[in-house]
Every structure is written in structure tokens, then in C-alpha cells.
Amino acid sequence: MKTLILYASTYGYTQECAAKLSNDLLGDVLLVNINADPVPPLEEYDTVLIGGSIYMGQIQKKIKEYCLANADSLKKKNLGFFISCGSAENFDENIKNSFPEALINAALSIENFGGEFRIDKMKLSHKLIMKMVAKATEKDNKPPAKPMPENIKKMAQTINHLNV
Ligand SMILES: Cc1cc2nc3c(=O)[nH]c(=O)nc-3n(C[C@H](O)[C@H](O)[C@H](O)COP(=O)(O)O)c2cc1C
């Protein structure tokens, strides 16, 4: 079985998650960064897993646009979606905003890979937003961003089961 993992990542967290997912999957896996690599033709793949990270409630535009433009072909694949985000609270809403409804309904696996705030790498405007978010999070007693590697394993297990 051939699997394509297509992702976008702004500060590297989702990139690391996508690499972990690729290591956990059986069979032939191609890892493609939509911002750096050419996206291969979908015909070659049985399974397509697509994800990115959430910024102000939105996934990276290129991922959103790719899914919309290729919805008909994607619908015929074993499909999975993942997002990285700072808060699990708005997971359903973030998924709805990121991917076409018909594809969400067709997906075999949809997972939250958690998140990390990589302040050192952030551009200034993102650092300032983070300062405000950190204050609000503390005030509301909300849990800070945390990685969820268990959900990477979960997606890999679901996809690997298709092979058995
Ligand atoms: C400026 C900024 C805005 C963000 N907005 C959201 C948001 O609306 N919802 C959320 O759950 N996480 C938000 N996050 C958290 C990111 O989704 C999280 O840090 C993620 O791990 C980033 O992954 P990446 O390094 O692959 O881009 C935001 C982070 C930054 C820096």
C-alpha cells in the first residue's frame, strides 16, 4: 500500500509529527511538505493523510486550497486528517474550518496531534500574540499547549489495519 503524507508546518512542530507518523506507518510512505516539495499525482496513492497547524483558527492556506481543489480525487482514497493546535477546546471547529465537509465525512481517521509554542523561532507579531494568549490562558486556567504523540500512534494504527 502506498501512502502520501502531505503537511504544512510554520515552526516545525507539525513537521516532526508528520515524520513520526511516517515512521509508524507500514508500507511505502512519501512525506511531502506542501511549502517545499512538489506534490506528486494522487493516482499513485491508496492512502492520503493531510494536515497542518492552526493559526488564529485557520490551517495553512495551501493545505485548505489543495483539499478544495482535489476533493473529487481525495474522496476516492483512504483519507486521514490531522491538525496541530495549542488548544484542544476548538478541535471540531478547527477541523471544520480546515477541510471540506464531504472529505471530513469520508475520512477514516481525524486526529489532534497537540501542539508546541516555539517562541524562540517565532516572528515578532506571533510572539506578541503568544504573550496575549499566554496571559488569557493563565487567567482562564486553561491548560497550555501540549504534544499528543498518542494520537499520532492512533492514526498510524488505524491506517496500518487497512493492510491486514
Ligand atoms: C500566532 C499564533 C496563533 C495561534 N493560533 C492558534 C489558534 O487559533 N488555535 C489553536 O488551537 N492554536 C493556535 N496556535 C498554536 C499552534 O497551532 C501550535 O503552536 C502548533 O504546534 C504550531 O505548529 P507548527 O510549528 O507546525 O506550525 C497559534 C500559535 C501562534 C504562534
TrEMBL record:
Any GO MF annotation of the entry: menaquinone-dependent protoporphyrinogen oxidase activity
Signal peptide: none
Domain Flavodoxin: 4-141
SUPFAM superfamilies to which the protein is assigned, alphabetical: Flavoproteins
Lineage of producing organism: Bacteria, Bacillati, Bacillota, Clostridia, Eubacteriales
Entry's Gene Ontology BP terms: heme biosynthetic process
Organism, scientific name: Acetobacterium paludosum
Entry protein name: Flavodoxin
Cross-referenced Pfam families: Flavodoxin_5
